[in-house]
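Question (not urgent): is this output format expected?
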Amino acid sequence: MISLSERFITHTKDVYGEQGTEWLKTFPHLLQTCQEQWKLSLQEPFPNLSYNYVQSVTTKTGEQCVLKLFINKEELSREMEALQLFDGNGMARLIDANMEAGALLLEHLSPGHALSTIESDEEATAIAASVMKQLNNAVSTQHSLPCLEGLAYEYKKLRKHFNGSTGPIPAHLVEKAELLFPALLQTIQQPVLLHGDLHHDNILCADDTWKAIDPKGLIGEVEYETVPFLYNYLLNQSSPLDVLNRRINQFVDILHLNRERILCWGLCHSIISAWWFLEDNIDEWKDRVLCAQLFDELMTNSHTL
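Got this back:
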């Protein structure tokens, strides 16, 4: 009998409310359904679960796989479609799905250690760039994935929540992001399929290469794709501004990107991310504000759009 950690239970209720509470009640049945459908031997769930339930499993043929149970069916649909479009290129493969149970059966990446275990930040950034090269390809119009335009609504939600103000997020940063975001959208040259949340812990070692996991599925430009990696594990560096600047320069050099657009997206998305954390009552919003300030500081000596 699999028991869920108190941390995961509390987080599920805090983030998903009544939907999360109901999902927790049905969890044993959902897990059993997947076990019977795919003839799985269950192993221990992954540590530090947050928004979804993820567990290593073995099929009846002895193949190691990953079982992922979603609380939010919309997130499930997006990830499944993104996995189908990536088709294993730089990404863990989708093996099967059960939409009713909210479950995906995925390729198990071995040895599976995350990019965050690489001591050299410069090496880790180069590896992330190599994964992006595989992922960010032009996508056909035959998809239902959201585009970056949809994120503009997050600024409106922020304003509405704080009655037109910006709450604890510095107003000048929000105002700057609100001006930059539509300008960025209007000047995207080549929309591509993005992972949408590509950072150190979503890039795993797979034999002699590296692959991504947990795609959000988003249509945008590659400059935007760099941002979750850029601000991840940044504030624990001895000189965050210097590290951020060097990471950006690496992405620009390796992927031939526009530095100014990376800086602008960095500020815009850091504010959106701070709002998301505030919305979910997670204290990490303060870190995202600090990251927005770092992007803004680098922008002061750069030309914008």
